[in-house]
Amino acid sequence: MILDRGYVRRLNKSDASAVFAVRQEAYQSSEQFKVLNFSYLEWDDVDDIAIVLGVFNQKNELLASLRGEIIRTRQEAEAKLHYSISPKLDLFPGVLLGRGATSRISRNKGFNSLLRYYYLGLGIDFPFKSMFASVFEKAPRIGLLRDMNYRFTIPDDSHDSQIHVVTREYFVYLERKQFLPSFKFLETKFKDVISRYPWTGLI
Fold first, then answer.
1. Which of 12, 116, 148, 160 qualifies as a FRET site for 199, CA 20 to 30 Å off?
2. What pLDDT score does 193 carry?
3. Which residues contact 13 (CB under 8 A, 6 or more apart)?
């Protein structure tokens, strides 16, 4: 059996159309939420300054992507996520992971986990206090995030006008002390996909 191979690299504006196509396809089929305005998935100024990573096959076709934004304060995070975050949590500066998307034919191959692995590798080398995100109840990656020791809370004032939540929205965060254990966990669990889709290029 011949296994697929490819690579991971940082995306840029020249990848905008491919990124939008993957995001749109993934979000259209979501059972956890419904997008009310697909234009918000287009490559924008945030993508220009964020670190957006992509998984490619050997034909240089984009299979999956994930965006990492450096967030310096709780107020900035709340503006991005559209809900309140407890001031008791010491999470900033941190990395907001979002806009995760995988093409339909590439699902269940570990690509989202692969990208999280590379973000953790970057995060270990920089003084971030956390990685965090919004995820939705019944999303495929919920179990994995729990295995990675992400903490889960339920916002009580979410008000994102771009989506309609069908299930339940969680604020999830991984504290810095869990970066290395989680990195090693992914390195072991997804050893095969990591070896077949190595990092290429500069960050």
1. 148
2. 97
3. 43, 47, 48
